[in-house]
Amino acid sequence: MPSGVKRRGRPSDNSLEESQHKNKKTRFEKEQETLASDDDDDDDLIDDEEEDDDDDLDLDQAEDKSQRKQRHGKPIEVNEAGTIARVEVVNFMCHKYLKIDFGPKINFVIGHNGSGKSAILTALTIALGAKATSTNRGKNLSSLIREGANAALASVHITNKGPDAYKQDVYGDVIIVERKINRDGVGTYKLKSASNRVISTKREELTTICDHYSIQIDNPLTTLTQDMARQFLSSSTAEEKYRLFLRGTQLAQLHEDYLSVTDAIHTTKAIIDRKKQYLPDLQKRAKESEAKYKQMLEAREIDSRIDEYNNELVWSQIIAKENEVERARANAAEARKLVQIAEEKVQVVDTRVARHSQDMADIQKMIDEFHTAQQPNRGEKQRLKQIHLEQENRNRELKSDMREINDQVKGARERIAKNNEKIAEEKAKQASSYQEGKRAQLEEEIRTLTIERDEARERQQSNSDQTEQCNTKRRELAGQLQELDQKLRRLKNEEHKMNQYIESLKAQRENKMAAYGRNMPQLLEAIQKETRWRGRRPVGPIGSYLSAKHPQYVDVLEVILKRSMANFVVETFDDSRLLNAMLKRFNLSYSSTVVVAKYDLFDYSHGEPSEEYLTVLRCLEFDNEWVKRQLIVANDIEKTLLMEDRAAADQVMARKPRNIKACYTASIQKVGAAMGARTEALEPYRGPPRFRQDVEPQIREAVGKLRELEQEMRQIQGEKQRLENEMREWKRKEDNLARQAPEIDRVIRDRSFQIRFKEGKLREEDVSIGTDEYERANEVEKERIEQLRSQFKHLSDEQHELAVQLQETVNKINELNQQDQLENQKLVDYQQEIQKITTLRDQEITKLNALRSKHAAERQRYETAKSNAEHLANTCASWTEQAMQEYPDRVETRATPEAIQRKIRELEILREETEKNVGASLEEVEQEARDTLEAWSEAKTIIQQMDSLHKQMQNSLVKRIAHWQEFRTFIALAAMGHFSYYMHKRGDNGSLKFNHKKEKLEIRVATGDQFSRGTRHKDSKSLSGGEKSFSQVSLLLALWQGISSPVVCLDEFDVYMDAVNRKQSMKMLMDAANENSSQYILITPQDASNMVPGPYVTVHRLADPDRS
Questions:
Q1: In what ranges is there compositional bias, type Acidic residues (predicted)?
Q2: DSSP readout, 230-295?
Q3: How far apart are CA 45 and CA 34, in angstroms?
Q4: Are residues 987 and 943 in the same domain?
Q5: Together in a domain, 1097 and 1012
Q6: 432, 887, 969, 1061: which one has the fewest Cβ atoms less than 10 Å from its Cβ?
Q7: Residues 6+ apart with CB under 8 A from 443
Q8: Average pLDDT of every residue of the chain
Q9: Of 4, 6, 10, which is closest to residue 163 (Cα–Cα)?
Q10: Which of 91, 148, 150 is nearest to 123 (CA)?
Q11: What does the alpha-carbon distance between residue 349 and residue 343 come to, in Å, rounded to a whole number?
Q12: Cβ atoms within 10 A of the Cβ of 115, count?
């Protein structure tokens, strides 16, 4: 592609468009168009022997205008994007290290031979991707490494500023290109950012950067090396100049591409022509096959009959399959009946199991009610025991008083006895010795009998007291034993419940759903497998979707939510009935309830209290919004308040807060309604924990409590054994006292009788002897005794009355004990009934499991039969559907498929005989005709498409070649105009002659004196060295106008110029540079004393080489 117009402020695109060249209307193009209008030869665009005086006038005016612009300080266009900021080499060619920082506009690099001028240009071209051979400095890259070094480095800094910068966010303001050359000839690239960070190591990235900035490093016109410059200035021919013109403007590359396209179009045309030759043969074969196929249609009648039999064969097979389906369905129906029978049996046994479970629950409820009803009896018994104790204390006080009276009576009697002794002594003095002896004997006998009687009475009283003590002790021990029996039964019941509780916790540890029932995991699995749900799949148990945010309220939450935790929610009553049946089947109907509710996620915020209150709703986290709504409806959890302190709860409820219906404390207390003040202690939840995920602490706590219960039971059993032993000891003692009582009574009666008898005899012989004083003393003592007896009688009556009351109290206690015994017997009966029902239920469960196994087997048999019937039905339906596609007319036939196949075979044999006559089967002929017609049609379509594509490509190529010729014409005209302009700057007349047919570019120059004398133009060979160099420089400047490149490099372009021509050439180059935005790097071995550095001119003087 041509390189496009010269850069004007920003780099142009690499592609060359016609509009770009047409819009480049400078004074040089207008002049060239004028010259071109006088040329009659299309190939020789300028007749270099004809000149127009007006041209000199126009050129002089243009020169004056340019000078006026320079004097008036017209700003010079500078576009730094894509320019070379620095070239740096290490161990490159003969230089150990060399670095040059270039300016954005005009750069002169001067120095003696060997100072590194050409090395800079070579490094620039090598770093930007050129080959070593293109520099004429070596055959390969390794030859560019300095002698004695193993590697060389060439680094180029490309300015990356302005709106046309390349990936400025990645590279920054400078793109650093490094190419390392190793001794083995292998080179590597590194593309770095301004911060020296490696961005890429790929050659493709470098090519993209050069394309972006239109850097043509291999263009001989933009990068003219030293050898190329010498050859160009000294010995280049017209053909070489023309080739240089085409290569520099990239017209040669575009021309080569068009030639390649032309070859491809010719090849395509040849292929199309070769394929067109086969079309008649294809058409002929298609017509022959079609004619042959028409002949074969005459045998279509046999095929029609075969089709009819095939239709009958297909439907006969379907009819056979339908009969097989009916038999399979009958087997499935029979299996279904057996499944129903098994289901009914399972339902009957399941109902009995549920009834047993309900009976157990009812009895357990009665046991709980019994424990609750026992509380008043215990209070009454405690009260009676307290009365009994008070009565016993009073009885002991009375007995103590009576013993004291007995002691006083005994003392009085002893004093009477002493008085009697005194009286006897007095009487003895008066009586005879016989009487005295007999009386003394009687008195001694009476005294002895009295002592024996009194001792017997004391023994009787002691026996009575001890007997009463034994009775009291035995009653007390009996009451204690009864209490111990009740406590032992209660502990055994608690032990049984604790063992069940531990088992449920262990089951929950394996599966947390076990907290809702032992069979809950199996129920949930069955719910997942069930497919008959009309609405959403049941949700539950509800508690499995809850978790507590505040663990201190877990116990009271269990009480508040109660059985709601184990409930399920469904949408339809059909699903409710199905789920209830499943609950019964898994023995969970007693603990779980099915709630039917529409799936409605209503807004409940209007019913909540102030944010300052912690409600049950706010204390819980929900995994299911439907569950939350059901608890709101059923339990008012959004209006139930939770508090830790009861007093604070009373205060809150006394204020009647809005949207609060109930209040509970963490200690499981309910604070009364909106009026407060009343507090009710609730029964704690005794089941397995449902809010806690980790049940290990509960298991350890339950095992500890079980150990405590067992220890307490052992202690009670030991205490019971001790009391029983003590009771037996008191019974033995009471029996001994009972055996002694009759003998004591006999002794008292006997001694009393003998005393009365002897006292009578004594009175008969008694004679008053003047013992009045002693008699009066006796009378006093006897009166004292009578008083004491009266007091004793009063105390005895009180004791008797107290004994009656005591006996009544004992009777009442005994009645309560008997009631307790009866109730305890009821409790034992309840427990025995539970055990009996448990045994029956276990038997029923065993039977139920067997029936379920049988039911599962029957269901499996039914499912197999049903699946087989469905499979056969699906097969039959599939056959029917396939048959309807090919044989839609059903045939009701009784013929077997085998008989129909025999008929078909006979017709096929007849058809084969017919086909032998034709040489092929009807299908083969039909397929051949179809294939040939399709081949001919496809070939014709493809050739038409290829022919159309070929014409389009050819027309496009013709247009592109025309555009290419226009590009060449415009560029040549521009070059001719600019060449004449630059030659006029020296006072010479110059012209370019393009011969596009012969591919020649000739330079014709008339020097100043010749031009004034009107002599003919000279060619370049007849010019002097300076004139030749100046004309070649003018040619370069003219050709540069058709090239877009941000960098232009010339090496030793002034080698053959004298000082005057060099000065003029330099000025012309600088003027040309000032007219565009490209960067110029000019290398010269000459002195630069006439070059003045400035903001746009940079002079780089290289140091002399080190010759040591």
A1: 36-61
A2: HHHHHT--HHHHHHHHHHHTTHHHHHHHHHHHHHHHHHHHHHHHHHHTTHHHHHHHHHHHHHHHHH
A3: 11
A4: no
A5: yes
A6: 432
A7: 420, 424, 762
A8: 76
A9: 10
A10: 91
A11: 10
A12: 19
Angle formed by the axes of helices 279-296 and 897-918, nearest 10°: 130
Q: In residues, how long is the chain?
A: 1108
> Is residue 30 over pLDDT 50?
no
Q: Would you state the pLDDT for residue 197?
A: 92
| CA nearest neighbour of 1014 among 989, 986, 1046 | 989
Q: For the beta carbon of residue 179, count every other beta carbon within 10 angstroms.
A: 22
On whether residue 482 sits in a domain, the answer given is no
What is the tally of structural domains in the chain?
3
Identify the domain containing residue 563 by its residue range: 538-693
CB atoms within 10 A of CB 544: 20
Residue 290 neighbours by CB under 8 Å, 6+ apart: 929, 932, 933
Question: Where do runs of H (alpha helix) occur along 511-572?
Answer: 520-529, 554-561
CA distances from 776 to 27, 439, 574, 765 (A): 188, 21, 112, 20
Nearest to 485 by CA among 123, 827, 107, 151: 827
pLDDT attached to residue 156:
94
Per-residue pLDDT for 52 more than 60? Answer: no
Residue 81 class from Cβ within 10 Å (0-12 exposed, 13-18 middle, 19+ buried)? Answer: buried
Final residue belonging to a domain, choices 693, 727, 755: 693
CA neighbor of 178 nearest in space, from 113, 74, 90:
90
Look-up of token digits 């008898």: 757
Max avg pLDDT among 143-157, 319-333, 594-608, 1088-1102: 143-157
Question: Which pLDDT score, from 0 to 100, does residue 39 have?
Answer: 39
How many whole angstroms separate alpha carbon 989 and alpha carbon 981?
A: 9
Amino acid at 285: R
Q: How far is CA 518 from the centre of its chain?
A: 32
Amino acid making up residue 248: G
H or E stretch covering 188: strand 187-192
Q: How confident is the model at residue 193 (pLDDT cuts 50, 70, 90)?
A: very high
Residue predicted with more confidence, 372 or 742: 742
Lowest pLDDT segment from 224-228, 250-254, 353-357, 429-433? 429-433
Residues 143 and 211 in one domain: yes
732 located within any domain: no
Residue 86 has pLDDT above 90, yes or no: yes
Type of residue numbered 1021: K
pTM for the full model?
Answer: 0.40
Structure tokens at 2: 């041509």
Domain end residue (candidates: 693, 720, 746): 693
According to DSSP, the residues that pair with 396 across neighbouring strands are none
Residue 1095 belongs to domain with CATH number = 3.40.50.300
Percent of the chain with pLDDT over 70: 79
Does 544 share its domain with 577? Answer: yes
Could you tell me if residue 104 is inside a domain? yes
Distance CA 100, CA 461 (A): 146
Bridge-partner residues for 620, per DSSP?
548
Looking at this protein, which amino acid is placed at residue 262?
T
pLDDT score recorded for residue 935: 82
129 & 210 share domain: yes
Q: Could you read off the pLDDT of 694-753 as tens digits, one per residue?
A: 566 777 777 888 888 888 888 888 888 888 888 888 888 878 887 787 788 778 777 777
Query: Which pLDDT value is given to residue 294?
Result: 66
Half-sphere exposure of 185 (CA within 13 A, CB side): 5
pLDDT at 88: 93
Is the pLDDT at 49 greater than 60, yes or no?
no
Asked, for residue 797, whether it belongs to a domain, the answer is no
**C-alpha distances in angstroms, 792 versus 391, 450, 751, 950, 996?**
19, 19, 22, 157, 173
Q: What is the DSSP string of 22-55?
A: HH---HHHHHHHHHHHT---SSB---TT---HHH
Main-chain phi, psi angles of 705, to 5 degrees? -65, -40
pLDDT band at 53; cut points 50, 70, 90: very low
- Domain match, 996 and 1083 both: yes
